[in-house]
Specification:
This protein has about 160 residues and is mostly beta strands. Helices cover about 5% and strands about 45% of the residues. The chain has a seven-stranded antiparallel β-sheet. Strands 7-6-10 form a three-stranded antiparallel β-sheet, with no helix packed on it. It is globular and about 55 Å long.
Length: about 160
């Protein structure tokens, strides 16, 4: 049995991390392409996995770093995701511990009886909330660093 059968096929996904206390880190996450190379694993899946660390490939300096997810404040990346026509996005503003404000949309299908902004923030299995900032900009926000959120959909 060859050792290559034990390797999960991966590709790099460019990201910008905000790490406490290091600051901005440019690099790439390893995302799985095991099931379909044309639809690789989403960075949100990598960050919301139960493992406490992620691997980031840095270019300058050229190195692999292993970051504790608890120290990652947020992760920015580009995504070309199509929107579901019948999905009603929730507009919101997140006030972060570092004083920054993140405005965007939550595009997540939730059960009808649990589809409020409050319910989204309290999804227990997801440490990182996925916020769509602009057309193709996504921000994964570590919920531990959110001071408060404002649901702008109810205004």
């Amino acid at each position: 049995m060859g050792s290559d059968k034990l390797v999960v096929p991966k590709q790099l996904s460019q990201v910008t991390l905000w790490v406490h206390p290091e600051g901005i880190v440019e690099g790439a996450l390893f995302v799985s392409i095991e099931h379909d190379p044309s639809h690789p694993e989403d960075p949100a899946q990598v960050l919301n996995h139960t493992s406490p660390f992620i691997v980031v490939r840095r270019e300058n300096p050229d190195e692999l770093r292993f970051y504790n997810k608890s120290s990652i404040v947020r992760v920015h990346y580009r995504a070309n995701e199509s929107t579901t026509p019948d999905l009603q996005p929730l507009r919101c503003t997140l006030h972060m511990m570092d004083g920054s404000l993140l405005r965007g949309e939550i595009r997540r299908e939730l059960p009808p009886d649990r589809s409020r902004f409050y319910d989204f923030l309290n999804l227990e299995k997801e440490r990182f909330a996925k916020l769509y900032l602009e057309e193709d900009q996504v921000c994964l926000v570590n919920k531990s660093y959110i001071v408060c959120g404002l649901d702008e959909s109810v205004r």
